[in-house]
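Ligand-bound model needed. zinc ion.
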Amino acid sequence: MACPCGCKSRIQLCCIPGSRPRWTFDVHENNTITLHPSVWRTVGCRSHFFLRNGRVSWC
Ligand SMILES: [Zn+2]
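Prediction:
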């Protein structure tokens, strides 16, 4: 996915069970996703946000 802050960085989230760090996401009926835990980039723009129902909530 592209970083939502607009810096155009790509964020790769690993959802493979057993790998670290890993994220899980729920896909809702309206095709939005909720991701958890939050995404915190440790490089670049250092964005920290949650993705809930397809919407970004900044920390
Ligand atoms: Zn960014």
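DSSP finds no helices and four strands in the chain.
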